[in-house]
Hints:
Elements: H1 3-21, H2 24-40, H3 49-70, H4 99-105, H5 110-121, H6 126-133, H7 137-151, H8 162-178, H9 181-187, E1 188-197, E2 209-210, H10 212-222, H11 224-229, E3 233-239, E4 242-248, E5 255-262, E6 265-272, H12 275-286
Parallel strand pairs: 1-6
Antiparallel strand pairs: 1-2, 3-4, 4-5, 5-6
Helix pairs in contact: 1-2, 1-3, 2-3, 5-6, 5-7, 6-7, 8-9, 9-10
Amino acid sequence: MSDARLETHRQRLVGLAYRMLGSVDDAEEAAQEAFLRYQAAGAPDVDNLQAWLTRVCVRICLDRIKRSAATQEVYPGQWLPEPFVDAENRAAIDETLSMALLVGMRQLSAAERAVFLLHDIFDYRFAEVADILDLSADNCRQLAVRARRKIRRPERAPRSSSEEFDRVTGAFLAAVRDGDIDRLRDLLAENVRLTSDGGGQVSAAPRPIAGRDKVATFLHRVFAPARKSAVLRETPVHFNGAPGVLLTAEGHSPSAYHLEIDDGRIVGIFVQRNPDKLRRLLRSACG
């Protein structure tokens, strides 16, 4: 197998595994394990290597999800996925990588998550999904319907443009930088929701904050110390399929902001502050 073909398969597997697990390290390990199993099987001359590797990788991810559920692991505070930087598509808008979608998928069972991703995101036919998961096609259809209902997502979700992301993100940053709470309220949807992840290591809101006024007031207070010291630094960085920003201030832990935008207004704000999950993003921003 050529290096180029190998890398193409690897990137696809990492993308699939990341969407299932929400961790770049775990996704890369799952993809690597799939290749090791292929080699351990004698590198068989299969008709469709992509399907073979996908089947194995999905099963590895399902095992990880089930083991985590069996041990009843409790995450400290609100969980957000590790930021994902796609080096090959740094400027592309990809809502299948959005924080909102990945957080929504945490509500799904392992089987629902796998069916939803394979059919709705990676465009496998239900017959192919059924073969990968050893289920019937009808069962897969039912799982997909349940998954969409739980995360309230249509089979083909609308897409925001890159220009809209840039415009709204820029206006958001200007409002918090200037302490203009009225302008900030104007950018927020009535039902906006803010979720932050500190991983139990740094400060973060212990529960999601919902509603325009509550979110605006929270952000105004959070950024007040940085505004007074005049050292708030903004580093644009593209992650999870959309323009985002890394905010740093002297004496404060860095925060990565990812916005969910609908019809020109912010409906979701995701703030990753967990130092363990920011390592890759910080390296990317510095590079």
